[in-house]
Here is the input.
Amino acid sequence: MSDIAFLFCTFIVSMSCAIYFRITRKLQNRQSLYLYLITINIGLSAAFSLISNFIENTTVATGYLFFIQYTSQLILFALHQMLSPLYTVYVMMVNGIGLNKNNKFFSVLMAPFAVVELLILTNPLNGFIFSYDRNSNFVRGPLEFVTYIVAIFYLLVSFHFLTKYRHAVSKKTTFSLVYFFALTIVGVIIQFFVPFFKLELFAESISTLGVMLSIETDNDNLEPTTRVYNRQAFAGENVRLIHTGQSYAVITIGMTNIRFFQRMLNYAALNEVMSNIADWLKSLSNDIRVFRAHPDNFSIIYLYSEPVDVDILVKKIADKFTEGWMYDTALLQINTVIKVAMIPQDFTDPDFILELTDINSDVEKNGVTILRSSDLESITRRALIEHALRNALDEDLFEVYYQPIIDMDAKKIVTAEALLRLNDPALGYIPPDEFIPIAEQNGLISDIGVAVFEKACAFLADERTKSLGLNYLEINLSVYQLIVGNTISKFKELMDEYGISPKQINLEITETGSIGDSNSLKTAIEELKRIGFAFSLDDYGTGYSNLTYIISMDFQNIKSDKGLLWNSDNNDDSKILITDTIQMMRRLGFNVIQEGVETKEQLDLVVDAGANLIQGYYFSKPIPKEEFLRFVKNFSFEDVINK
Here is the structure.
């Protein structure tokens, strides 16, 4: 009855592994799913083997009892034959080679399995795989050896992928798979030569348990290239430590020029460098955990004993990066920004800590730069603003103000610029030049742009606005909005909803944004022009555009940058430059909007130069919708000029 005991243990071990997978929800990736299927398969195989062997050991089965015995054995063979291809696919998922294979590849790979399964399923007709004698004893069939040959085939395929792509996984993973595969082979060999010793399934269940414990336990929290903990693990660990009141240090090592080395070396070489750095960091102390929460940096959580220990650790890291990293015969000098935050003194919000992992693009110094405490206040501010932006979208807190633009020939307001404003309940007024770059970096600019566009459409659809006789409305458009695929379709939907024509809207793109060379950007601009939108070039004079490009874009308006105008108050060269620029643009046939006009002297300067559209505090600051409607209705050009 020892065979029954082995089979019972196999069933318990396998089903326990399957239950563990379900409890821990480890089925979010393919490799875990395949190991889960393996555990289920072994458990079911053990169950049917138990039934078959119990009947065989206790009685000479006849009638329905023999039918149960035979059917159980048949199902056992069919299930058990699935194990070897499942193991092969699992290996391919572990090292990643199976992720990019198509259905044709897997169809060919599964062909031997399909042949054996066909032999098994037709066994009642021919007895090729197994049969029972007149005493209901199990007898091997003449083609049973084929099942072993096919199993060996899949074993060799697994070993091939395991060795060929061994560098794609850690040494621990490779060793675990080799060791536990070997254990399975031992069980198979023993049972082949000693059929009554049912050790094969038991060895397979123990092997699966070992693979699960050694490979799957932390896999969801590991970054695949360096095998250190990932962003998800970093966020979770900070939540756990903060909630339990721990004092610790977070050290983030941002490598600001690492992309240069990717171009200089290659992807695989850079991965090796990153792995070497990760291994070195892990060797620094048993009290640290190393994370790769961003492709260009590493982060360390250090449960220090004394604050001075943090200084010692930071110095070691700084010294090593100053020294450089050897790759082959090259010494790589990686520019590094080391951010050191003491928790909870510096941060108490896990989201703010996660911001540490973002590269600070403002820091472009060579060598190693160390930022501490007060140096990190900008991170807190950025995180607060990002939260405010999300809240503003959810709660509809964005407002659109309107600044009138005066036609100096017609002596009246002919258009206006829609300008975004945000007053956050906690932070108060946040300037656009502070929150818009953040929105562009985190991707919120698309949703914000659509929200502004909708408010502008609602403004144009208002009967009171229609009565003002505005020619069109200027709306700012970020280049990042154009990259998002659904921006144009959203604009069209909103215009249809509010009954707005593209001719009523002029889209302003900045001089820096207008020079983008990406095909997607150019395609988007051409599509908007085809729909009927006109464009204005904003901030002309900041030094990026060339005249050939400006002429080819066929802008309706050129908006002269206010900075150059303000400099002209005290700088004769700036005065000459702005005068010549306006005159040139007018000769080329463009309307010139001069923004930032605040004094009569500035007005006279740009009007004499030829600027025909004026925007600035001299006439009005940006004002809310209702105030704007009253302003335009009561506007008197002469009263303003003669004030």
User: Anything to note?
Assistant: The chain has a mean pLDDT of 85.
